[in-house]
Design brief:
- This protein is mainly α.
- It contains four helices and no strands.
- The radius of gyration is 16 Å and the shape is elongated.
- The mean pLDDT is about 90.
């Protein structure tokens, strides 16, 4: 945890982003238990707990966007 906090250079906001996106993007996925462990490590390393919920929403949005088919560009004349 100390190394993770050191890598983040004391930036609790950065750790909160990682934790939230991981949690939101992994909900219901096979790797969810492993991702939850990573989220817990981010929390113990100093993630800002107040910032995590917004990043969970961002992770959910990213997961939803990734599940959509690619944009084809429509019809070309």
């Amino acid at each position: 945890m100390a190394e993770l906090g050191e890598l983040a250079a004391g930036r609790g906001d950065l750790l909160a982003e990682v934790a939230g996106v991981l949690e939101g993007a992994s909900e219901g996925e096979p790797g969810e238990p492993l991702k939850r462990q990573a989220v817990q490590l981010c929390g113990k390393a100093g993630a800002d707990p107040q910032a995590i919920p917004a990043w969970i929403q961002a992770g959910r949005a990213r997961r939803a966007a990734a599940s959509r088919p690619p944009f084809s560009g429509g019809l070309h004349p």
